[in-house]
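Researcher: Please generate the 3D structure of the following complex. Treat every line as part of one assembly.
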Amino acid sequence: MADTVLTSGLARPQALRLAAWRPRRQTALAFGLLAPSLVLLTLFTYWPVAQVLWQALHNQIKIGGPQAYVGLANFTALFADAAFRKALANNLFYAFGTVIPSLVLALGFAMALARSSRVNALFRSLFFLPVLIPLVAAASIFLFIFLPNAGLLDYHLAKLAISGPNWLGDPDVALWSIMGLTIWKNAGYYMLFFLAGLQAVPADAYEAAILDGANPWQRLRYVTLPYLKPTIGFVMVIGLINVVTQVDHVFVLTKGGPSDSTNLLLFYVYQQAVESYDAGRAAAGTLVMLALLLAISASSLRTLERSFGEREP
Amino acid sequence: MIEASSGVANREITPRLGYAATLLLAALWMTPFLWMLVAAFNPHTYGGSGMASLVPSYVPTLGNFAEAWASADFPRYGLNTAIISFGILAGQIVMITLAGYAFARLEFPGRTLCFYLFLLQLMLAPVVLIVPNLATIAKLGLYDSLLGVMAPYFASAFGTFLMRQAFRAIPRELEDAALIDGASVWQRIGFIYLPLAKPSLIAFGIVSVTSHWNEFLWPLMVINSPDLRPLTVGLASFTRGAEGAQAWGVIAAGTLMVSAPLLIAFALFQRAFVNSFVSSGIK
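Model: Done. Output below.
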Protein backbone atom coordinates (compact mmCIF):
# COMPACT_ATOMS: atom_id res chain seq x y z
CA MET A 1 0.00 0.00 0.00
CA ALA A 2 2.70 2.38 1.02
CA ASP A 3 4.54 1.31 -2.12
CA THR A 4 1.69 2.30 -4.39
CA VAL A 5 1.37 5.66 -2.76
CA LEU A 6 5.05 6.18 -3.01
CA THR A 7 5.37 5.30 -6.68
CA SER A 8 2.25 7.12 -7.78
CA GLY A 9 3.41 10.08 -5.79
CA LEU A 10 6.72 9.92 -7.57
CA ALA A 11 5.38 9.21 -11.02
CA ARG A 12 3.53 12.49 -11.32
CA PRO A 13 6.33 15.02 -10.99
CA GLN A 14 8.59 12.65 -12.91
CA ALA A 15 6.14 12.62 -15.81
CA LEU A 16 5.86 16.37 -15.67
CA ARG A 17 9.58 16.74 -15.68
CA LEU A 18 9.67 14.38 -18.68
CA ALA A 19 7.33 16.67 -20.57
CA ALA A 20 9.46 19.71 -19.80
CA TRP A 21 12.58 17.73 -20.61
CA ARG A 22 11.22 16.98 -24.03
CA PRO A 23 11.72 19.52 -26.77
CA ARG A 24 15.21 20.89 -26.53
CA ARG A 25 17.08 18.07 -24.87
CA GLN A 26 15.33 15.56 -27.06
CA THR A 27 16.45 17.38 -30.20
CA ALA A 28 20.02 17.47 -28.91
CA LEU A 29 19.87 13.79 -28.01
CA ALA A 30 18.39 12.85 -31.40
CA PHE A 31 21.10 14.61 -33.33
CA GLY A 32 23.72 13.20 -31.00
CA LEU A 33 22.47 9.71 -31.78
CA LEU A 34 22.22 10.41 -35.50
CA ALA A 35 25.58 12.19 -35.67
CA PRO A 36 27.84 9.15 -36.21
CA SER A 37 25.66 7.91 -39.07
CA LEU A 38 25.21 11.37 -40.57
CA VAL A 39 28.96 12.05 -40.51
CA LEU A 40 29.70 8.79 -42.32
CA LEU A 41 26.82 9.23 -44.73
CA THR A 42 28.17 12.66 -45.54
CA LEU A 43 31.68 11.31 -46.09
CA PHE A 44 30.72 8.30 -48.19
CA THR A 45 27.37 9.13 -49.80
CA TYR A 46 26.59 12.86 -50.05
CA TRP A 47 30.14 14.16 -50.46
CA PRO A 48 31.05 11.65 -53.21
CA VAL A 49 27.85 12.51 -55.09
CA ALA A 50 28.71 16.20 -54.86
CA GLN A 51 32.28 15.45 -55.84
CA VAL A 52 31.20 13.42 -58.86
CA LEU A 53 28.86 16.22 -59.93
CA TRP A 54 31.69 18.74 -59.70
CA GLN A 55 34.22 16.49 -61.37
CA ALA A 56 31.90 15.63 -64.21
CA LEU A 57 31.81 19.34 -65.12
CA HIS A 58 35.54 19.98 -64.73
CA ASN A 59 38.69 18.75 -66.38
CA GLN A 60 42.26 19.73 -67.07
CA ILE A 61 42.38 21.88 -70.17
CA LYS A 62 46.15 21.78 -70.34
CA ILE A 63 47.93 18.59 -69.35
CA GLY A 64 49.09 19.06 -65.78
CA GLY A 65 47.12 22.28 -65.56
CA PRO A 66 44.47 23.12 -62.98
CA GLN A 67 40.93 21.75 -63.13
CA ALA A 68 38.73 24.11 -65.09
CA TYR A 69 35.02 24.22 -65.77
CA VAL A 70 34.38 22.46 -69.05
CA GLY A 71 30.59 22.28 -69.09
CA LEU A 72 29.29 19.09 -70.62
CA ALA A 73 32.56 18.27 -72.36
CA ASN A 74 33.12 15.21 -70.19
CA PHE A 75 29.72 13.89 -71.14
CA THR A 76 30.31 14.61 -74.80
CA ALA A 77 33.60 12.75 -74.56
CA LEU A 78 31.92 9.95 -72.65
CA PHE A 79 29.19 9.43 -75.21
CA ALA A 80 31.71 9.81 -78.03
CA ASP A 81 33.66 6.89 -76.56
CA ALA A 82 32.59 3.77 -78.43
CA ALA A 83 33.55 1.63 -75.42
CA PHE A 84 31.12 3.54 -73.20
CA ARG A 85 28.29 3.33 -75.72
CA LYS A 86 28.99 -0.36 -76.01
CA ALA A 87 28.97 -0.76 -72.20
CA LEU A 88 25.68 1.13 -71.94
CA ALA A 89 24.06 -0.94 -74.70
CA ASN A 90 25.46 -4.14 -73.20
CA ASN A 91 24.09 -3.23 -69.80
CA LEU A 92 20.59 -2.63 -71.19
CA PHE A 93 20.68 -5.91 -73.09
CA TYR A 94 22.13 -7.66 -70.05
CA ALA A 95 19.37 -6.20 -67.87
CA PHE A 96 16.56 -7.54 -70.04
CA GLY A 97 18.36 -10.78 -70.74
CA THR A 98 18.94 -11.63 -67.09
CA VAL A 99 16.14 -10.05 -65.09
CA ILE A 100 13.24 -11.44 -67.12
CA PRO A 101 14.50 -15.04 -67.41
CA SER A 102 15.54 -15.11 -63.72
CA LEU A 103 12.14 -13.79 -62.77
CA VAL A 104 10.27 -16.38 -64.84
CA LEU A 105 12.47 -19.21 -63.56
CA ALA A 106 12.20 -18.01 -59.96
CA LEU A 107 8.42 -17.89 -60.22
CA GLY A 108 8.39 -21.36 -61.76
CA PHE A 109 10.63 -22.79 -59.06
CA ALA A 110 8.58 -21.17 -56.31
CA MET A 111 5.28 -22.45 -57.71
CA ALA A 112 6.59 -25.96 -58.24
CA LEU A 113 8.15 -26.12 -54.79
CA ALA A 114 5.57 -24.15 -52.79
CA ARG A 115 3.92 -27.30 -51.47
CA SER A 116 5.53 -28.25 -48.19
CA SER A 117 7.42 -31.50 -48.20
CA ARG A 118 10.91 -32.55 -47.27
CA VAL A 119 11.87 -33.09 -50.90
CA ASN A 120 10.64 -29.65 -51.91
CA ALA A 121 12.48 -28.06 -49.02
CA LEU A 122 15.67 -29.74 -50.18
CA PHE A 123 15.22 -28.49 -53.74
CA ARG A 124 14.51 -24.96 -52.54
CA SER A 125 17.81 -25.07 -50.67
CA LEU A 126 19.62 -26.33 -53.77
CA PHE A 127 18.36 -23.41 -55.85
CA PHE A 128 19.45 -21.04 -53.10
CA LEU A 129 23.06 -22.28 -52.86
CA PRO A 130 24.44 -20.17 -55.76
CA VAL A 131 23.24 -17.04 -53.94
CA LEU A 132 25.60 -17.73 -51.05
CA ILE A 133 28.90 -18.11 -52.85
CA PRO A 134 30.91 -15.06 -53.87
CA LEU A 135 30.32 -13.95 -57.46
CA VAL A 136 34.07 -14.28 -57.91
CA ALA A 137 33.94 -17.93 -56.81
CA ALA A 138 31.05 -18.60 -59.20
CA ALA A 139 33.11 -17.03 -61.98
CA SER A 140 36.08 -19.26 -61.11
CA ILE A 141 33.89 -22.35 -61.56
CA PHE A 142 32.38 -21.06 -64.78
CA LEU A 143 35.85 -20.38 -66.14
CA PHE A 144 36.19 -24.13 -66.60
CA ILE A 145 32.58 -24.64 -67.66
CA PHE A 146 33.16 -22.21 -70.56
CA LEU A 147 36.65 -23.49 -71.41
CA PRO A 148 36.86 -24.26 -75.14
CA ASN A 149 37.02 -27.96 -76.13
CA ALA A 150 38.01 -29.58 -72.84
CA GLY A 151 35.62 -27.51 -70.67
CA LEU A 152 32.53 -28.89 -68.98
CA LEU A 153 30.08 -27.50 -71.52
CA ASP A 154 32.01 -28.43 -74.66
CA TYR A 155 32.96 -31.85 -73.31
CA HIS A 156 29.34 -32.81 -72.72
CA LEU A 157 28.06 -31.14 -75.88
CA ALA A 158 30.65 -33.14 -77.83
CA LYS A 159 29.04 -36.32 -76.55
CA LEU A 160 25.86 -35.14 -78.27
CA ALA A 161 27.93 -34.38 -81.35
CA ILE A 162 27.39 -30.64 -80.94
CA SER A 163 30.39 -28.36 -81.19
CA GLY A 164 29.83 -25.34 -79.00
CA PRO A 165 31.01 -21.82 -79.81
CA ASN A 166 33.94 -20.22 -78.02
CA TRP A 167 31.79 -19.26 -75.03
CA LEU A 168 33.91 -16.42 -73.71
CA GLY A 169 36.11 -15.71 -76.75
CA ASP A 170 33.48 -15.03 -79.37
CA PRO A 171 32.23 -11.41 -79.14
CA ASP A 172 28.78 -12.52 -80.30
CA VAL A 173 28.47 -15.17 -77.61
CA ALA A 174 30.42 -13.94 -74.59
CA LEU A 175 27.72 -11.69 -73.14
CA TRP A 176 25.20 -14.52 -73.39
CA SER A 177 27.57 -16.74 -71.42
CA ILE A 178 27.94 -14.08 -68.73
CA MET A 179 24.16 -13.78 -68.64
CA GLY A 180 23.85 -17.52 -68.11
CA LEU A 181 26.06 -17.25 -65.04
CA THR A 182 24.04 -14.30 -63.69
CA ILE A 183 20.75 -16.15 -64.09
CA TRP A 184 22.19 -19.20 -62.36
CA LYS A 185 23.44 -17.06 -59.51
CA ASN A 186 20.31 -14.96 -58.88
CA ALA A 187 17.23 -17.05 -59.70
CA GLY A 188 17.30 -18.78 -56.30
CA TYR A 189 17.37 -15.43 -54.51
CA TYR A 190 14.31 -14.17 -56.34
CA MET A 191 12.61 -17.52 -55.72
CA LEU A 192 12.60 -16.72 -51.98
CA PHE A 193 10.48 -13.62 -52.56
CA PHE A 194 8.01 -15.54 -54.71
CA LEU A 195 7.78 -18.29 -52.08
CA ALA A 196 6.96 -15.60 -49.52
CA GLY A 197 4.55 -13.94 -51.96
CA LEU A 198 2.72 -17.19 -52.69
CA GLN A 199 1.89 -17.48 -48.99
CA ALA A 200 -0.26 -14.42 -49.37
CA VAL A 201 -2.46 -16.08 -52.00
CA PRO A 202 -5.52 -17.36 -50.17
CA ALA A 203 -6.26 -21.03 -50.69
CA ASP A 204 -9.93 -20.14 -51.28
CA ALA A 205 -8.98 -18.26 -54.42
CA TYR A 206 -7.58 -21.45 -55.94
CA GLU A 207 -10.48 -23.53 -54.75
CA ALA A 208 -12.92 -21.12 -56.33
CA ALA A 209 -10.94 -21.12 -59.56
CA ILE A 210 -10.84 -24.93 -59.63
CA LEU A 211 -14.57 -25.12 -58.96
CA ASP A 212 -15.10 -22.73 -61.85
CA GLY A 213 -13.16 -25.16 -64.01
CA ALA A 214 -10.11 -22.95 -64.56
CA ASN A 215 -7.18 -24.80 -66.09
CA PRO A 216 -3.66 -24.36 -64.66
CA TRP A 217 -2.82 -21.54 -67.09
CA GLN A 218 -5.99 -19.67 -66.23
CA ARG A 219 -5.27 -20.13 -62.54
CA LEU A 220 -1.81 -18.68 -63.11
CA ARG A 221 -3.15 -15.79 -65.18
CA TYR A 222 -6.17 -14.84 -63.09
CA VAL A 223 -5.27 -15.94 -59.56
CA THR A 224 -1.54 -16.28 -58.93
CA LEU A 225 -0.17 -13.41 -60.98
CA PRO A 226 -2.59 -10.73 -59.75
CA TYR A 227 -1.73 -11.63 -56.15
CA LEU A 228 1.99 -11.63 -56.91
CA LYS A 229 2.00 -8.26 -58.65
CA PRO A 230 3.75 -6.41 -55.78
CA THR A 231 6.33 -9.20 -55.47
CA ILE A 232 7.05 -9.11 -59.18
CA GLY A 233 7.61 -5.36 -59.07
CA PHE A 234 9.82 -5.68 -56.04
CA VAL A 235 11.94 -8.49 -57.52
CA MET A 236 12.27 -6.51 -60.74
CA VAL A 237 13.74 -3.56 -58.84
CA ILE A 238 16.23 -5.75 -56.95
CA GLY A 239 17.16 -7.45 -60.21
CA LEU A 240 17.75 -4.15 -62.00
CA ILE A 241 19.85 -2.81 -59.12
CA ASN A 242 21.94 -6.01 -59.25
CA VAL A 243 22.42 -5.54 -62.97
CA VAL A 244 24.03 -2.14 -62.36
CA THR A 245 26.03 -2.99 -59.25
CA GLN A 246 27.42 -6.50 -59.80
CA VAL A 247 30.28 -6.94 -62.27
CA ASP A 248 32.73 -9.16 -60.36
CA HIS A 249 32.22 -12.04 -62.78
CA VAL A 250 33.06 -9.81 -65.75
CA PHE A 251 36.36 -9.00 -64.05
CA VAL A 252 37.30 -12.67 -63.62
CA LEU A 253 35.90 -14.12 -66.83
CA THR A 254 36.48 -11.59 -69.60
CA LYS A 255 37.70 -8.23 -68.28
CA GLY A 256 35.07 -6.71 -70.50
CA GLY A 257 36.41 -8.30 -73.66
CA PRO A 258 36.59 -9.56 -76.31
CA SER A 259 36.43 -6.14 -77.98
CA ASP A 260 34.23 -4.72 -75.20
CA SER A 261 31.48 -7.21 -75.95
CA THR A 262 30.99 -7.96 -72.24
CA ASN A 263 31.84 -4.54 -70.82
CA LEU A 264 29.25 -3.21 -68.37
CA LEU A 265 28.93 0.32 -66.99
CA LEU A 266 30.45 -0.26 -63.58
CA PHE A 267 33.36 -2.16 -65.07
CA TYR A 268 33.87 0.61 -67.61
CA VAL A 269 33.98 3.19 -64.82
CA TYR A 270 36.42 1.00 -62.89
CA GLN A 271 38.64 0.81 -65.99
CA GLN A 272 38.52 4.57 -66.52
CA ALA A 273 39.46 5.26 -62.91
CA VAL A 274 42.01 2.52 -62.23
CA GLU A 275 43.50 1.78 -65.62
CA SER A 276 43.15 5.00 -67.63
CA TYR A 277 43.23 7.48 -64.70
CA ASP A 278 40.59 9.54 -66.48
CA ALA A 279 38.82 11.08 -63.48
CA GLY A 280 36.47 13.26 -65.51
CA ARG A 281 35.22 10.40 -67.61
CA ALA A 282 34.93 8.08 -64.60
CA ALA A 283 32.89 10.77 -62.83
CA ALA A 284 30.62 11.26 -65.81
CA GLY A 285 30.16 7.48 -66.07
CA THR A 286 29.39 7.27 -62.35
CA LEU A 287 26.76 9.97 -62.77
CA VAL A 288 25.10 7.99 -65.56
CA MET A 289 24.92 4.99 -63.21
CA LEU A 290 23.60 7.12 -60.36
CA ALA A 291 20.89 8.45 -62.65
CA LEU A 292 19.95 4.89 -63.63
CA LEU A 293 19.86 3.77 -59.99
CA LEU A 294 17.74 6.76 -59.00
CA ALA A 295 15.33 6.03 -61.82
CA ILE A 296 15.09 2.39 -60.76
CA SER A 297 14.59 3.12 -57.08
CA ALA A 298 12.30 6.08 -57.69
CA SER A 299 9.90 3.59 -59.20
CA SER A 300 10.06 1.67 -55.95
CA LEU A 301 10.06 4.69 -53.65
CA ARG A 302 6.44 4.01 -52.82
CA THR A 303 7.32 0.50 -51.70
CA LEU A 304 10.28 1.75 -49.70
CA GLU A 305 8.18 4.36 -47.96
CA ARG A 306 5.49 1.82 -47.27
CA SER A 307 7.85 -0.68 -45.70
CA PHE A 308 9.89 1.91 -43.83
CA GLY A 309 7.22 4.61 -43.80
CA GLU A 310 8.07 7.77 -41.90
CA ARG A 311 4.50 8.24 -40.74
CA GLU A 312 3.32 6.22 -37.76
CA PRO A 313 1.28 3.22 -38.86
CA MET B 1 16.11 -26.84 -45.69
CA ILE B 2 14.07 -23.87 -46.72
CA GLU B 3 10.83 -24.02 -44.83
CA ALA B 4 7.56 -24.55 -46.54
CA SER B 5 4.98 -21.88 -46.99
CA SER B 6 1.54 -22.29 -45.56
CA GLY B 7 -1.38 -20.64 -47.36
CA VAL B 8 -1.03 -22.36 -50.67
CA ALA B 9 0.66 -25.29 -49.04
CA ASN B 10 -0.73 -28.67 -49.88
CA ARG B 11 -2.31 -27.31 -52.98
CA GLU B 12 -1.45 -28.41 -56.45
CA ILE B 13 -0.60 -25.18 -58.22
CA THR B 14 1.77 -26.42 -60.88
CA PRO B 15 0.97 -29.33 -63.10
CA ARG B 16 3.25 -32.35 -62.97
CA LEU B 17 5.09 -31.29 -66.10
CA GLY B 18 6.22 -28.08 -64.44
CA TYR B 19 7.36 -30.02 -61.42
CA ALA B 20 9.40 -32.39 -63.57
CA ALA B 21 10.97 -29.46 -65.42
CA THR B 22 11.89 -27.86 -62.10
CA LEU B 23 13.61 -31.02 -60.91
CA LEU B 24 15.54 -31.21 -64.18
CA LEU B 25 16.61 -27.61 -63.77
CA ALA B 26 17.63 -28.33 -60.19
CA ALA B 27 20.01 -30.96 -61.55
CA LEU B 28 21.36 -28.38 -64.00
CA TRP B 29 21.67 -25.84 -61.16
CA MET B 30 23.74 -28.28 -59.13
CA THR B 31 26.11 -29.19 -61.96
CA PRO B 32 28.65 -26.40 -61.27
CA PHE B 33 28.81 -27.41 -57.61
CA LEU B 34 29.07 -31.08 -58.53
CA TRP B 35 31.93 -30.30 -60.91
CA MET B 36 33.68 -28.25 -58.25
CA LEU B 37 33.52 -31.19 -55.83
CA VAL B 38 34.59 -33.83 -58.35
CA ALA B 39 37.43 -31.70 -59.73
CA ALA B 40 38.69 -30.60 -56.33
CA PHE B 41 39.43 -34.17 -55.25
CA ASN B 42 40.77 -35.24 -58.65
CA PRO B 43 44.40 -36.37 -58.46
CA HIS B 44 45.06 -35.30 -62.06
CA THR B 45 45.52 -31.63 -61.53
CA TYR B 46 46.78 -30.25 -64.78
CA GLY B 47 45.38 -29.99 -68.26
CA GLY B 48 41.77 -29.82 -69.29
CA SER B 49 41.22 -33.33 -70.58
CA GLY B 50 39.48 -35.66 -68.19
CA MET B 51 38.66 -32.80 -65.86
CA ALA B 52 35.18 -32.39 -67.32
CA SER B 53 33.88 -35.69 -65.99
CA LEU B 54 31.11 -35.36 -63.44
CA VAL B 55 31.47 -38.93 -62.25
CA PRO B 56 34.55 -39.42 -60.11
CA SER B 57 36.63 -42.30 -61.47
CA TYR B 58 39.66 -41.88 -59.28
CA VAL B 59 40.92 -42.35 -55.78
CA PRO B 60 40.17 -38.97 -54.17
CA THR B 61 43.15 -37.01 -52.91
CA LEU B 62 43.65 -33.77 -51.07
CA GLY B 63 46.54 -32.86 -53.38
CA ASN B 64 44.65 -29.99 -54.98
CA PHE B 65 43.81 -28.52 -51.61
CA ALA B 66 47.43 -28.80 -50.52
CA GLU B 67 48.57 -27.06 -53.68
CA ALA B 68 45.94 -24.33 -53.43
CA TRP B 69 46.82 -23.87 -49.76
CA ALA B 70 50.49 -23.55 -50.64
CA SER B 71 50.11 -21.21 -53.60
CA ALA B 72 47.89 -18.62 -51.91
CA ASP B 73 47.72 -17.54 -48.30
CA PHE B 74 44.10 -18.58 -47.79
CA PRO B 75 44.19 -18.56 -43.97
CA ARG B 76 45.30 -14.93 -44.00
CA TYR B 77 42.76 -14.00 -46.68
CA GLY B 78 40.12 -15.70 -44.58
CA LEU B 79 41.20 -13.78 -41.51
CA ASN B 80 41.11 -10.50 -43.45
CA THR B 81 37.64 -11.29 -44.77
CA ALA B 82 36.45 -12.16 -41.26
CA ILE B 83 37.89 -8.93 -39.86
CA ILE B 84 36.26 -6.89 -42.63
CA SER B 85 32.83 -8.54 -42.44
CA PHE B 86 32.54 -8.67 -38.67
CA GLY B 87 34.23 -5.30 -38.22
CA ILE B 88 31.66 -3.74 -40.53
CA LEU B 89 28.88 -5.51 -38.65
CA ALA B 90 30.16 -4.31 -35.25
CA GLY B 91 30.32 -0.70 -36.44
CA GLN B 92 26.92 -1.00 -38.10
CA ILE B 93 25.26 -2.39 -34.98
CA VAL B 94 26.38 0.60 -32.91
CA MET B 95 25.32 3.14 -35.53
CA ILE B 96 22.01 1.59 -36.55
CA THR B 97 21.00 1.09 -32.93
CA LEU B 98 21.60 4.74 -32.04
CA ALA B 99 20.04 6.12 -35.22
CA GLY B 100 17.22 3.58 -35.09
CA TYR B 101 16.34 4.67 -31.57
CA ALA B 102 16.34 8.33 -32.59
CA PHE B 103 13.93 7.66 -35.46
CA ALA B 104 11.75 5.30 -33.45
CA ARG B 105 11.31 7.17 -30.20
CA LEU B 106 12.35 10.81 -30.44
CA GLU B 107 10.51 13.82 -31.79
CA PHE B 108 12.76 16.47 -33.23
CA PRO B 109 12.65 19.14 -35.91
CA GLY B 110 14.17 17.95 -39.20
CA ARG B 111 13.17 14.35 -38.60
CA THR B 112 11.52 13.91 -41.98
CA LEU B 113 14.48 15.54 -43.71
CA CYS B 114 16.86 13.16 -41.90
CA PHE B 115 14.65 10.25 -42.90
CA TYR B 116 14.96 11.15 -46.57
CA LEU B 117 18.70 11.75 -46.22
CA PHE B 118 19.03 8.18 -44.98
CA LEU B 119 16.69 6.94 -47.69
CA LEU B 120 19.05 8.43 -50.27
CA GLN B 121 21.74 5.96 -49.26
CA LEU B 122 19.28 3.14 -49.73
CA MET B 123 18.68 4.31 -53.28
CA LEU B 124 22.31 4.88 -54.25
CA ALA B 125 24.14 1.60 -53.87
CA PRO B 126 27.55 2.37 -52.28
CA VAL B 127 29.39 0.21 -54.84
CA VAL B 128 28.53 2.71 -57.57
CA LEU B 129 30.45 5.39 -55.67
CA ILE B 130 33.71 3.41 -55.58
CA VAL B 131 35.66 5.98 -57.60
CA PRO B 132 34.99 9.09 -55.46
CA ASN B 133 35.06 6.99 -52.28
CA LEU B 134 38.52 5.73 -53.14
CA ALA B 135 39.73 9.34 -53.28
CA THR B 136 38.14 10.04 -49.88
CA ILE B 137 39.72 6.90 -48.38
CA ALA B 138 43.11 7.97 -49.72
CA LYS B 139 42.70 11.47 -48.26
CA LEU B 140 41.83 9.99 -44.89
CA GLY B 141 45.04 7.96 -45.02
CA LEU B 142 43.11 4.70 -45.11
CA TYR B 143 44.26 3.49 -48.52
CA ASP B 144 45.56 -0.10 -48.37
CA SER B 145 44.08 -0.79 -44.95
CA LEU B 146 41.25 -3.03 -43.80
CA LEU B 147 39.62 -0.03 -42.11
CA GLY B 148 39.54 1.64 -45.51
CA VAL B 149 37.51 -1.28 -46.88
CA MET B 150 35.12 -1.10 -43.95
CA ALA B 151 34.64 2.67 -43.52
CA PRO B 152 32.00 3.37 -46.20
CA TYR B 153 29.71 0.67 -44.81
CA PHE B 154 29.48 1.57 -41.12
CA ALA B 155 26.47 3.79 -41.66
CA SER B 156 23.59 1.74 -43.00
CA ALA B 157 20.26 3.23 -43.93
CA PHE B 158 18.76 -0.21 -44.35
CA GLY B 159 19.90 -1.30 -40.89
CA THR B 160 18.69 1.96 -39.37
CA PHE B 161 15.21 1.53 -40.80
CA LEU B 162 15.14 -2.12 -39.75
CA MET B 163 16.02 -1.20 -36.15
CA ARG B 164 13.53 1.64 -36.21
CA GLN B 165 10.79 -0.84 -37.12
CA ALA B 166 11.91 -3.26 -34.43
CA PHE B 167 12.14 -0.56 -31.74
CA ARG B 168 8.72 0.77 -32.58
CA ALA B 169 7.21 -2.63 -31.94
CA ILE B 170 8.51 -2.51 -28.35
CA PRO B 171 5.93 -1.10 -25.89
CA ARG B 172 6.82 2.40 -24.74
CA GLU B 173 5.73 1.50 -21.21
CA LEU B 174 8.85 -0.61 -20.75
CA GLU B 175 11.04 2.39 -21.42
CA ASP B 176 8.92 4.68 -19.26
CA ALA B 177 9.25 2.25 -16.36
CA ALA B 178 13.03 2.22 -16.76
CA LEU B 179 13.03 6.00 -17.02
CA ILE B 180 11.21 6.28 -13.72
CA ASP B 181 13.78 3.95 -12.20
CA GLY B 182 16.37 6.48 -13.31
CA ALA B 183 17.87 4.57 -16.23
CA SER B 184 19.94 6.70 -18.59
CA VAL B 185 19.28 6.67 -22.31
CA TRP B 186 22.23 4.32 -22.82
CA GLN B 187 20.91 1.93 -20.23
CA ARG B 188 17.45 2.05 -21.79
CA ILE B 189 18.86 1.27 -25.23
CA GLY B 190 21.28 -1.36 -23.97
CA PHE B 191 19.03 -3.20 -21.55
CA ILE B 192 15.56 -2.79 -23.01
CA TYR B 193 15.68 -2.07 -26.72
CA LEU B 194 18.67 -4.10 -27.86
CA PRO B 195 17.75 -7.41 -26.21
CA LEU B 196 14.18 -7.18 -27.50
CA ALA B 197 15.34 -6.36 -31.04
CA LYS B 198 17.62 -9.38 -31.22
CA PRO B 199 15.72 -11.15 -34.03
CA SER B 200 16.05 -8.08 -36.26
CA LEU B 201 19.72 -7.73 -35.36
CA ILE B 202 20.38 -11.34 -36.30
CA ALA B 203 18.53 -10.97 -39.60
CA PHE B 204 20.50 -7.85 -40.39
CA GLY B 205 23.76 -9.48 -39.30
CA ILE B 206 23.36 -12.44 -41.62
CA VAL B 207 22.67 -10.31 -44.66
CA SER B 208 25.42 -7.83 -43.83
CA VAL B 209 28.11 -10.45 -43.22
CA THR B 210 27.11 -12.46 -46.31
CA SER B 211 27.21 -9.47 -48.62
CA HIS B 212 30.53 -8.15 -47.34
CA TRP B 213 32.06 -11.61 -47.18
CA ASN B 214 31.37 -11.90 -50.90
CA GLU B 215 32.32 -8.38 -51.92
CA PHE B 216 35.06 -7.97 -54.49
CA LEU B 217 35.38 -4.75 -56.49
CA TRP B 218 35.68 -2.32 -53.59
CA PRO B 219 38.37 -4.25 -51.62
CA LEU B 220 40.16 -4.82 -54.92
CA MET B 221 40.47 -1.05 -55.32
CA VAL B 222 41.36 -0.22 -51.72
CA ILE B 223 43.82 -3.03 -50.96
CA ASN B 224 47.25 -3.08 -52.51
CA SER B 225 49.36 -5.28 -50.21
CA PRO B 226 48.91 -9.02 -50.81
CA ASP B 227 48.86 -9.49 -47.02
CA LEU B 228 45.66 -7.51 -46.66
CA ARG B 229 43.66 -9.18 -49.43
CA PRO B 230 40.28 -10.63 -48.54
CA LEU B 231 39.24 -14.08 -49.82
CA THR B 232 37.51 -12.81 -52.94
CA VAL B 233 40.46 -10.72 -54.13
CA GLY B 234 42.87 -13.49 -53.20
CA LEU B 235 40.80 -16.04 -55.08
CA ALA B 236 40.62 -13.87 -58.21
CA SER B 237 44.39 -13.44 -58.41
CA PHE B 238 44.95 -17.08 -57.47
CA THR B 239 42.55 -18.16 -60.21
CA ARG B 240 44.32 -16.01 -62.77
CA GLY B 241 47.64 -17.67 -61.89
CA ALA B 242 46.26 -21.22 -61.87
CA GLU B 243 44.30 -20.64 -65.09
CA GLY B 244 47.54 -19.97 -66.93
CA ALA B 245 48.84 -23.32 -65.67
CA GLN B 246 45.52 -25.00 -66.56
CA ALA B 247 45.41 -26.23 -62.97
CA TRP B 248 41.62 -26.71 -62.91
CA GLY B 249 41.65 -29.09 -59.96
CA VAL B 250 43.53 -26.52 -57.91
CA ILE B 251 41.11 -23.78 -58.93
CA ALA B 252 38.19 -25.99 -57.91
CA ALA B 253 39.83 -26.72 -54.56
CA GLY B 254 40.55 -23.02 -53.93
CA THR B 255 37.03 -22.03 -54.90
CA LEU B 256 35.60 -24.69 -52.63
CA MET B 257 37.66 -23.44 -49.69
CA VAL B 258 36.56 -19.85 -50.29
CA SER B 259 32.88 -20.77 -50.65
CA ALA B 260 32.75 -23.30 -47.82
CA PRO B 261 32.37 -21.03 -44.75
CA LEU B 262 29.08 -19.46 -45.87
CA LEU B 263 27.75 -22.74 -47.30
CA ILE B 264 28.42 -24.46 -43.96
CA ALA B 265 26.85 -21.56 -42.06
CA PHE B 266 23.80 -21.87 -44.31
CA ALA B 267 23.58 -25.62 -43.73
CA LEU B 268 23.56 -25.01 -39.98
CA PHE B 269 21.17 -22.06 -39.84
CA GLN B 270 19.00 -22.45 -42.91
CA ARG B 271 15.86 -20.91 -41.58
CA ALA B 272 17.61 -17.88 -40.12
CA PHE B 273 19.38 -17.31 -43.44
CA VAL B 274 16.24 -17.56 -45.52
CA ASN B 275 14.20 -15.34 -43.21
CA SER B 276 16.83 -12.66 -43.12
CA PHE B 277 17.27 -12.70 -46.88
CA VAL B 278 13.54 -12.37 -47.42
CA SER B 279 13.28 -9.49 -44.96
CA SER B 280 16.17 -7.67 -46.57
CA GLY B 281 15.32 -7.43 -50.22
CA ILE B 282 16.21 -3.79 -50.16
CA LYS B 283 19.80 -3.62 -49.06
